[in-house]
Amino acid sequence: MRFLGGPLALLPAIEHFRRHRRLPVALGVAAACVAPTFVNVVLAGAAGGGHTTSWHGIDAIDLRLTGRSLAGMLDATTGDLARTLLRVGDQLPWWGYVVALAWVIVVVIATAQFLGVVRGMVPVPVEICFTMAGLLTATLFAGIGFFDALATPDNRIMLPAGLLSLVGIVWSIEISEHRTERALAVGVLAVWAVTAVRPWDAAHLFSQPDRLAAAKEFADLDASVVVSNDADGFYFLTGIPSAYLPPERFSLTDEPVDRAALFADLPCALARNDGAVVVFPDAMFGVFGQAELDALVATGELSVVSSSPAGVVYRSSKNASECP
Description:
Blueprint: H1 5-20, H2 23-46, H3 60-71, H4 76-79, H5 81-86, H6 94-114, H7 124-146, H8 159-175, H9 179-197, E1 225-228, H10 231-238, E2 242-244, H11 259-272, E3 275-279, H12 290-298, E4 302-308, E5 311-316
Parallel strand pairs: 1-2, 1-3
Antiparallel strand pairs: 3-5, 4-5
């Protein structure tokens, strides 16, 4: 719901421009509507409320997830939540690019028609629904870029835009006066429903994709807890409680992490809790903390107990009795 506020704040300005065609006044209306939210965002960031009001950027992963979410409207496997989040490196099928590009083009045309720049290019239901879907997506990306860097355009967050798009298409069919067009559209929707949902292969909806296939090799690791550079993927496939190695900065506040103190305490923490460190070269977030681990190995506080292309396992060289 947090991303729905953007369109609601901008709609009065858009409607004012449609009626009066006075851009400066419409921009003033937009500024007035956005001002309370903007002040709240700045104050929340200044108070350390878990977010920072600065440009976080839009990464390639955001665009790839958007493409998967849009293509997921037409295919259950592509849009499956686990695959969207846990297999972000998977390439889109060829038709996924076509769907994503077509959606963007329709959004641009619908928005231009909604604003009165062009006329009669798309049916009115498509004009309304796709304009709102585009506005919703634009404000989503604004929120990701400027405030909430952890949000991703996966199919959960893109769901309102997807529903609006499908409603616009179905609504256009419903009000069409041409029986042939309606029959053809209904036939296409029926074929889509069968091929997208794939009722003959319902098991694929409950399959578990491998975010970190290499973790399977360590499923029988004799450890009560694991510290890793991909704790989520490791726990997902092994069930062993996992935590991440210390990052350079906190994800939300962007504050620097005192990694030196955390890595200094790591050998004793592992010894006290029967833990191990597992580093994967192909982890979702890459390899981090390698220099600190190598330094602990060099001083004899950690030992490499196994190494393979799948990953490297470290254990503490200390006993729990030696630790404070």
